[in-house]
Protein backbone atom coordinates (compact mmCIF):
# COMPACT_ATOMS: atom_id res chain seq x y z
CA UNK A 1 0.00 0.00 0.00
CA UNK A 2 1.02 3.63 -0.33
CA UNK A 3 2.01 5.80 2.63
CA UNK A 4 -1.26 7.71 2.34
CA UNK A 5 -3.24 4.46 2.40
CA UNK A 6 -1.18 3.23 5.33
CA UNK A 7 -2.18 6.22 7.46
CA UNK A 8 -5.85 5.43 6.85
CA UNK A 9 -5.43 1.68 7.19
CA UNK A 10 -3.42 1.74 10.39
CA UNK A 11 -5.83 4.19 12.03
CA UNK A 12 -8.72 1.90 11.15
CA UNK A 13 -6.83 -1.13 12.44
CA UNK A 14 -6.05 0.55 15.77
CA UNK A 15 -9.69 1.48 16.31
CA UNK A 16 -10.93 -2.01 15.47
CA UNK A 17 -8.34 -3.69 17.67
CA UNK A 18 -9.24 -1.38 20.55
CA UNK A 19 -12.90 -2.33 20.39
CA UNK A 20 -12.04 -6.02 20.16
CA UNK A 21 -9.97 -5.80 23.36
CA UNK A 22 -12.34 -3.69 25.47
CA UNK A 23 -15.03 -5.00 27.80
CA UNK A 24 -16.71 -3.85 31.01
CA UNK A 25 -13.63 -4.51 33.15
CA UNK A 26 -10.61 -3.72 31.01
CA UNK A 27 -9.71 -1.96 27.83
CA UNK A 28 -8.88 1.41 26.32
CA UNK A 29 -10.28 4.72 27.53
CA UNK A 30 -9.50 7.72 25.32
CA UNK A 31 -9.01 10.93 27.29
CA UNK A 32 -8.09 13.30 24.50
CA UNK A 33 -7.62 13.34 20.72
CA UNK A 34 -6.72 16.70 19.23
CA UNK A 35 -4.83 17.80 16.10
CA UNK A 36 -1.43 19.46 16.51
CA UNK A 37 1.33 20.98 14.40
CA UNK A 38 5.02 20.77 15.22
CA UNK A 39 7.94 22.48 13.48
CA UNK A 40 9.91 19.23 13.28
CA UNK A 41 7.21 16.57 13.03
CA UNK A 42 4.65 18.52 11.00
CA UNK A 43 0.91 17.98 11.39
CA UNK A 44 -0.43 15.12 13.46
CA UNK A 45 -2.83 14.14 16.20
CA UNK A 46 -2.14 14.07 19.93
CA UNK A 47 -3.80 11.15 21.71
CA UNK A 48 -3.99 10.50 25.45
CA UNK A 49 -5.28 7.11 26.59
CA UNK A 50 -5.65 5.05 29.76
CA UNK A 51 -5.24 1.29 29.53
CA UNK A 52 -7.34 -0.48 32.17
CA UNK A 53 -5.74 -3.88 32.79
CA UNK A 54 -7.15 -6.65 34.96
CA UNK A 55 -4.46 -9.16 34.05
CA UNK A 56 -0.87 -8.55 33.07
CA UNK A 57 -1.28 -11.09 30.27
CA UNK A 58 -3.50 -8.62 28.42
CA UNK A 59 -0.84 -5.93 28.26
CA UNK A 60 0.60 -7.06 24.89
CA UNK A 61 -2.88 -7.29 23.36
CA UNK A 62 -3.70 -3.74 24.40
CA UNK A 63 -0.29 -2.32 23.64
CA UNK A 64 -0.90 -2.95 19.95
CA UNK A 65 -3.41 -0.09 20.09
CA UNK A 66 -0.67 2.38 20.97
CA UNK A 67 0.61 2.66 17.43
CA UNK A 68 0.89 6.43 16.96
CA UNK A 69 0.65 7.80 13.42
CA UNK A 70 3.07 10.16 11.71
CA UNK A 71 5.90 10.24 9.19
CA UNK A 72 8.39 10.62 12.03
CA UNK A 73 7.60 10.38 15.73
CA UNK A 74 8.90 9.09 19.02
CA UNK A 75 7.10 7.31 21.83
CA UNK A 76 8.52 6.77 25.29
CA UNK A 77 6.88 4.73 28.01
CA UNK A 78 7.69 4.08 31.65
CA UNK A 79 7.09 0.62 33.07
CA UNK A 80 4.89 0.97 36.19
CA UNK A 81 6.50 -2.06 37.86
CA UNK A 82 10.09 -0.94 37.29
CA UNK A 83 10.42 2.83 37.46
CA UNK A 84 13.99 2.72 36.14
CA UNK A 85 12.98 0.92 32.96
CA UNK A 86 12.16 2.72 29.75
CA UNK A 87 10.97 1.75 26.28
CA UNK A 88 11.48 4.06 23.31
CA UNK A 89 10.20 3.39 19.79
CA UNK A 90 11.34 5.77 17.06
CA UNK A 91 9.47 5.29 13.77
CA UNK A 92 10.17 6.49 10.23
CA UNK A 93 7.96 5.58 7.26
CA UNK A 94 9.39 5.48 3.73
CA UNK A 95 7.87 4.64 0.30
CA UNK A 96 10.37 1.85 -0.36
CA UNK A 97 10.76 -1.90 0.11
CA UNK A 98 13.06 -1.73 3.12
CA UNK A 99 16.24 -0.72 1.32
CA UNK A 100 16.92 2.57 3.14
CA UNK A 101 19.98 2.77 5.38
CA UNK A 102 20.10 4.45 8.79
CA UNK A 103 16.79 6.28 8.43
CA UNK A 104 16.92 7.14 12.15
CA UNK A 105 20.23 8.99 11.77
CA UNK A 106 21.79 6.81 14.47
CA UNK A 107 25.31 7.52 15.71
CA UNK A 108 28.22 5.20 14.97
CA UNK A 109 27.98 3.87 18.53
CA UNK A 110 24.26 3.14 18.11
CA UNK A 111 24.86 1.48 14.74
CA UNK A 112 27.46 -0.81 16.29
CA UNK A 113 24.98 -1.95 18.96
CA UNK A 114 22.00 -2.18 16.63
CA UNK A 115 20.54 -5.47 15.46
CA UNK A 116 18.52 -5.36 12.23
CA UNK A 117 15.54 -7.65 11.72
CA UNK A 118 13.22 -7.64 8.73
CA UNK A 119 9.61 -8.34 9.66
CA UNK A 120 7.66 -9.75 6.72
CA UNK A 121 3.91 -9.38 7.36
CA UNK A 122 3.33 -12.48 5.23
CA UNK A 123 5.54 -14.60 7.48
CA UNK A 124 4.14 -17.01 10.05
CA UNK A 125 5.33 -16.68 13.64
CA UNK A 126 4.83 -19.37 16.27
CA UNK A 127 6.76 -17.84 19.16
CA UNK A 128 5.35 -17.28 22.65
CA UNK A 129 4.34 -13.65 22.16
CA UNK A 130 2.50 -14.31 18.93
CA UNK A 131 0.38 -16.84 20.81
CA UNK A 132 -0.27 -14.45 23.73
CA UNK A 133 -1.47 -11.55 21.58
CA UNK A 134 -5.23 -11.62 21.12
CA UNK A 135 -5.61 -11.00 17.38
CA UNK A 136 -7.24 -12.81 14.45
CA UNK A 137 -4.93 -15.26 12.72
CA UNK A 138 -4.70 -14.53 8.99
CA UNK A 139 -2.61 -16.06 6.22
CA UNK A 140 -1.57 -13.36 3.77
CA UNK A 141 0.00 -15.93 1.44
CA UNK A 142 -3.55 -16.96 0.48
CA UNK A 143 -5.41 -13.67 1.06
CA UNK A 144 -6.58 -11.62 -1.93
CA UNK A 145 -8.36 -8.28 -1.62
CA UNK A 146 -11.64 -8.16 -3.53
CA UNK A 147 -11.71 -4.37 -3.77
CA UNK A 148 -8.07 -3.74 -4.72
CA UNK A 149 -7.11 -7.17 -6.13
CA UNK A 150 -3.92 -6.97 -4.07
CA UNK A 151 -2.45 -10.19 -2.73
CA UNK A 152 -1.69 -12.90 -2.11
CA UNK A 153 1.71 -11.97 -0.67
CA UNK A 154 3.88 -14.74 -2.03
CA UNK A 155 7.63 -15.22 -1.65
CA UNK A 156 9.51 -12.15 -2.88
CA UNK A 157 6.42 -9.91 -2.77
CA UNK A 158 8.39 -6.99 -1.27
CA UNK A 159 10.45 -6.70 -4.47
CA UNK A 160 7.51 -6.84 -6.86
CA UNK A 161 4.51 -5.13 -5.21
CA UNK A 162 3.45 -1.64 -6.31
CA UNK A 163 2.69 0.42 -4.30
CA UNK A 164 4.89 -0.60 -1.37
CA UNK A 165 6.09 1.12 1.80
CA UNK A 166 8.14 0.26 4.86
CA UNK A 167 7.83 1.19 8.51
CA UNK A 168 11.26 1.47 10.12
CA UNK A 169 11.13 1.09 13.91
CA UNK A 170 14.07 1.67 16.23
CA UNK A 171 13.24 -0.08 19.51
CA UNK A 172 15.37 0.80 22.54
CA UNK A 173 14.66 -1.01 25.80
CA UNK A 174 16.64 -0.02 28.88
CA UNK A 175 16.20 -2.12 32.02
CA UNK A 176 19.06 -1.33 34.46
CA UNK A 177 18.04 -4.04 36.91
CA UNK A 178 20.77 -6.32 38.25
CA UNK A 179 20.18 -9.96 37.44
CA UNK A 180 16.99 -9.31 35.49
CA UNK A 181 17.62 -6.45 33.10
CA UNK A 182 18.92 -8.34 30.07
CA UNK A 183 16.16 -10.95 30.19
CA UNK A 184 13.52 -8.26 30.59
CA UNK A 185 14.94 -6.30 27.65
CA UNK A 186 14.89 -9.37 25.40
CA UNK A 187 11.35 -10.20 26.50
CA UNK A 188 9.93 -6.72 25.83
CA UNK A 189 11.64 -6.39 22.45
CA UNK A 190 10.33 -9.81 21.41
CA UNK A 191 6.84 -8.71 22.48
CA UNK A 192 7.10 -5.52 20.45
CA UNK A 193 8.17 -7.51 17.40
CA UNK A 194 5.08 -9.70 17.73
CA UNK A 195 2.90 -6.59 18.09
CA UNK A 196 4.36 -5.01 14.97
CA UNK A 197 3.70 -8.19 13.01
CA UNK A 198 0.13 -8.69 14.26
CA UNK A 199 -0.97 -5.07 13.81
CA UNK A 200 0.46 -4.61 10.32
CA UNK A 201 -0.69 -8.02 9.16
CA UNK A 202 -4.27 -7.09 10.10
CA UNK A 203 -3.89 -3.67 8.50
CA UNK A 204 -3.46 -5.42 5.15
CA UNK A 205 -5.97 -8.20 5.85
CA UNK A 206 -8.70 -5.60 6.57
CA UNK A 207 -7.95 -3.50 3.48
CA UNK A 208 -11.39 -4.15 1.96
CA UNK A 209 -12.97 -2.57 5.04
CA UNK A 210 -10.96 0.68 5.10
CA UNK A 211 -9.92 1.15 1.45
CA UNK A 212 -11.43 4.34 0.03
CA UNK A 213 -12.08 5.97 3.40
CA UNK A 214 -11.02 9.55 4.03
CA UNK A 215 -9.23 10.90 7.08
CA UNK A 216 -12.41 12.78 8.00
CA UNK A 217 -14.27 9.45 8.10
CA UNK A 218 -11.50 7.94 10.22
CA UNK A 219 -11.69 10.82 12.72
CA UNK A 220 -15.47 10.44 12.97
CA UNK A 221 -15.01 6.71 13.47
CA UNK A 222 -12.53 7.43 16.26
CA UNK A 223 -14.95 9.83 17.97
CA UNK A 224 -17.82 7.37 17.90
CA UNK A 225 -15.54 4.56 19.01
CA UNK A 226 -14.30 6.63 21.96
CA UNK A 227 -17.87 7.12 23.18
CA UNK A 228 -18.69 3.43 22.77
CA UNK A 229 -15.54 2.30 24.57
CA UNK A 230 -16.19 4.62 27.51
CA UNK A 231 -19.74 3.35 27.75
CA UNK A 232 -18.54 -0.23 27.65
CA UNK A 233 -15.89 0.31 30.33
CA UNK A 234 -18.16 2.14 32.77
CA UNK A 235 -21.22 -0.05 32.37
CA UNK A 236 -21.06 -3.17 34.60
CA UNK A 237 -21.85 -6.32 32.65
CA UNK A 238 -22.26 -9.78 34.12
CA UNK A 239 -20.57 -12.72 32.50
CA UNK A 240 -22.75 -14.55 30.00
CA UNK A 241 -24.93 -13.70 27.06
CA UNK A 242 -25.35 -10.02 27.95
CA UNK A 243 -21.62 -9.46 27.82
CA UNK A 244 -21.34 -11.12 24.45
CA UNK A 245 -24.31 -9.16 23.19
CA UNK A 246 -22.72 -5.86 24.16
CA UNK A 247 -19.49 -6.77 22.42
CA UNK A 248 -21.35 -7.70 19.25
CA UNK A 249 -23.29 -4.43 19.26
CA UNK A 250 -20.09 -2.48 19.77
CA UNK A 251 -18.36 -4.29 16.91
CA UNK A 252 -21.29 -3.94 14.53
CA UNK A 253 -21.61 -0.19 15.14
CA UNK A 254 -17.90 0.47 14.68
CA UNK A 255 -17.60 -1.57 11.50
CA UNK A 256 -20.69 0.11 10.11
CA UNK A 257 -19.08 3.50 10.65
CA UNK A 258 -15.84 2.30 9.10
CA UNK A 259 -17.20 0.86 5.89
CA UNK A 260 -17.13 3.02 2.78
CA UNK A 261 -19.79 2.34 0.14
Protein model, in words:
- This protein has 261 residues and is α+β, with helices and mostly antiparallel strands.
- The chain has a single domain, classed as START domain (Alpha-D-Glucose-1,6-Bisphosphate, Chain A, domain 4, 2-Layer Sandwich).
- It is built from 8 helices and 5 strands.
- The protein has helices at 3-20, 59-63, 108-113, 128-132, 181-205, 207-210, 215-234, 241-258; strands spanning 27-38, 42-52, 72-78, 86-94, 166-174.
- Strands 3-4-5 form a 3-stranded antiparallel sheet. A two-stranded antiparallel sheet has the order 1-2.
- A hairpin with a 7-residue loop joins strand 3 (72-78) and strand 4 (86-94).
- Helix 1 packs across helix 5 (181-205) and helix 1 runs antiparallel to helix 8.
- The longest helix has 25 residues, at 181-205.
- One of its GO terms (molecular function) is phosphatidylinositol transfer activity.
- It comes from Miscanthus lutarioriparius.
- This is Phosphatidylinositol transfer protein N-terminal domain-containing protein.
- It holds the Pfam family IP_trans.
- Residues 1-56, 78-225 form the Phosphatidylinositol transfer protein N-terminal domain.
Amino acid sequence: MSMEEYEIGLSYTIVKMEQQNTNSKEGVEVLQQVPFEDEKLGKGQFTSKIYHLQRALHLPALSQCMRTLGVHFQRAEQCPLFSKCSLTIDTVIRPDNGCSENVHNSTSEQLAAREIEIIDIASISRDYWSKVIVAPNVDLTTFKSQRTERGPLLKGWMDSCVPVMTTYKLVIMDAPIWGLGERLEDCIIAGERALFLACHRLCFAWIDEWYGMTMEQIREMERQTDMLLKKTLKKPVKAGSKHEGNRKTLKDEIVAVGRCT
